Amino acid sequence: MRYRTPSYMDKFHCIADKCKDSCCIGWEIDIDEKTKAYYDSVDTPFAERLKKDIKDGCFVLDEKERCPFLNDKNLCDIYINLGKEHLCQICSDHPRYYEWFGELKEGGIGLSCEEAARVILSNDFSLKETEIEEEEDLPDYDMEVFAALEKARDMILEKLNETGEKKVPLEFLLSWMLKYGKVLQLKLDEYSAEMEEIQEKVISELPEDAQIFGETNSEAAFGENPSEESPFGADAKTHDDGIIEEDDLAQFLMNGRVRSTLMAYFQTLEPMSNSWIPFLEMCDQVNRMHISDTKWLDEINSEKYEIYFRRLASYFIYRYFMKAVFDLDAAGKIKFAVLSTYMIWLLARCTIELTGQCDFEDLALLAKNYSKEIEYSEENLEKLM
Ligand code: SF4
């Protein structure tokens, strides 16, 4: 099986006791069945603690919401007593994430871990592929859509990571991404409507016993090449050529009132920590003081910062865009990547106003906090996509 990850993936190592915001605090962890069975079989003195501190398949957090196995040195007692190989799946994976697409597995490190955030922000974005031993899944989606989305994602990532003369200012690029997302979505909608129509026709013509199962996959129904026309054909390319002209959305994003609306909207989302909403409220006030200042974000668009936001946008696009193959919502994935990059950008600008600075470390922690609040809440993710 092919295994694809950002090239920086191997640079990540958990910093354990040096972590300011350990993932062993504040998260309810479900222990997978295999690990739970192993914990049940332990017969050393450590078994007493495993029995006491695990209830209903979860670690019982203490009154400070710490994992009961996180010791005073912020090290894991399960790791120490049973070994790394006996951490449960979630603990040993975190902050790594994976997605399976038939014979391709994609992985990466999630922004919600402060050390992963440092790695994501400090490394140029590129992808690498290796072969791994893992059983392949049968893809349960349209391969043609997958290929088209992959091509579209490659193009977006290439533009985000362009250097030299070809580099397009980030606010224009984010605007173009939104517009490109709309074009992709139109094509996808047309394509899936056509597919549905053809599929219904084929199903209605199937002999009765096949109809009982009520399903067919596109390859079986239409042969290996179901459609001559790619869902993202010539139109998308024409749009791509118009990249520099699409500055109306850039203006829109830079508008102070739009910033306020966004800020207000984010305050309505489910908070994961107590400090998040007060932080957003402070940023909201700062933003209101600069509501008619169209140049207010310029500093963040400077050489010093801009590269970090390109890397963040690349992270969000890489992590979420291909999921559109399952729900056919490409525009939603792009919108989420743009909104997230833009919000972190805006919060960084507010941080400069509030504290006088937003250096690399501040930005990494800000991005990590955003990710914890948004990416690790299914409800928030659904609302923003
Ligand atoms: S948040 Fe990241 S660095 Fe911190 S303890 Fe968890 S995996 Fe390690």
Could you list the spans in which at least 5 consecutive residues all have pLDDT below 50? Answer: 209-247
Radius of gyration: 23 Å
Strand order of the largest sheet: 4-5-1-6
Number of helices: 18
Secondary-structure element series = EHHEEHHEEHEHHHHHHHHHHHHH
The overall strand count is 6
Strand content: 5-15%
Which structural category fits the helices and strands? alpha+beta
Q: How many structural domains can be distinguished in the coordinates?
A: 2
**Proportion in helices:** 55-70%
Hetero groups bound? iron/sulfur cluster
Characterize the largest beta sheet: strand count, sense, and whether it forms a barrel: 4 strands, mixed
What number is the mean pLDDT?
84
Cα end-to-end separation? 30 Å
Quickly describe the structure.
With 385 residues, the chain is an alpha+beta fold.
Question: What would your notes on this structure say?
Answer:
The protein is globular. The strands form two sheets. The chain has a four-stranded mixed beta sheet. It has a two-stranded antiparallel sheet with strand order 2-3. The chain starts with a strand and ends with a helix. The model is unreliable at about 210-245 (pLDDT under 50). Strand 2 (about 55) and strand 3 (about 60) form a beta hairpin. It has 18 helices and six strands. Helix 7 runs antiparallel to helix 16 and helix 14 (about 305-320) packs antiparallel against helix 16 (about 330-355). About 55% of the residues lie in helices and about 5% in strands. It has two domains: about 25-95, no CATH class; about 145-385, no CATH class. It has helices spanning about 35-40, 45-55, 75-80, 90-95, 115-120, 145-160, 170-205, 210-215, 220, 235-240, 250-255, 255-270, 275-290, 305-320, 325, 330-355, 360-375, 380-385, and strands spanning about 1-5, 55, 60, 95-100, 105-110, 125-130. It has about 375 residues and is an alpha+beta fold. The site of iron/sulfur cluster (SF4) has 11 residues, from helix 5.
